[in-house]
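Lab manual, section 2.4: Encoding a predicted structure.

Procedure: take the sequence of the chain (358 residues), apply the prediction step described in section 2.3, and record the output as structure tokens. A sample record is shown.
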Amino acid sequence: MRSRHYRIPPSIPWQDAALRVAAIDFVILELRTDNDLVGHGIAYTVGPGSSAIKALLDDGCAAHVIGQDPSNFRAIQQSIAHYLHRTGQGLGSCAMAAIDIALWDLVGKERHLPLYRLIGKVRESIASYESGIDLFMTPQELEQDLIAKKQRGAKAVKIKVGRESLQDDIDRISAARHVFGTESSLMLDANQCWELNEARRRMAAFERFYPYWLEEPLSPADISAHAELRRNSSIPIAVGESLYNSSQFMAYLKADAADIYQPDVVRVGGITSWLKIANLCEVWGRRVAPHYMSEISVHLLCSITNGLFLEVVNGGTFSDLKICPSLTTADGQTFPTSVPGNGLAFDWQRLEPFEVPM
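Recorded output:
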């Protein structure tokens, strides 16, 4: 078991209502079997924490994995979860995810199956949208950026909102609708920047643009406020990238507080946990459109019945960063890789300059 830590700037500028992202930190994990198969797992942060994730992986987690059958996903995850539970939700979940993703990769390679077929294929592709972390752009710059996305085949897009002025947000949404028209799916993402009253005001102003969803309008801790917004607006609410376990998702489901759920396969602890959350959402009649990690998420969406959209984050996919092969997209659909395992094949030479020294 070996972990490595890399810090890579996004290939284009990133800024939303919460922060300007200078770099994405990745922790890449290698698990090797006694017959020399190698499984790759991954965790990431867009702020502090990746050094701690690597330290957790290096500090005792190996004892819960070495000697185990890699197909014992749940037992291994339960053992690691018990070991890490005092570290708190976020860092422990991310460390656990790196191991869990690597285990699934190993089993896929052992059985000569791509991840989505290992889990159980539902479809061969999933609708995708291009996601811009673009709050720094003027409406005119945003319009030109969206024209370029449309020209390269995007059928749906997401833009950031949360400028200080409501009119600034309206100008940005108007620019997006000018490019894509009212028939295309336009998603909005506020990155938790409002209190309830301001969110009410903004959503009332946004309704005439028919957004497909508004993502994270409020702090994820305020479930009741999300439920109130949902009851009083025609705009669907999306949440999930800042939730870390199935209990938090269940609390939202019970409160009827969101329409679309966006579990992040790293933040929730890996594929095993992600599938449990997706199944919960299916039972409650809710669709799933995961956050980030598109190279893994495309497999997951093709293996569940309630998959909705794949997020392809401009400037932050592994192919954008030139560390993995490109995703295949055609006519607004993205296809999972057909090679055994999760399809992550890292360019170690390209990564070398970005490695964070121990």
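Check your result against the sample. The CA atoms of residues 84 and 92 lie 6 Å apart.
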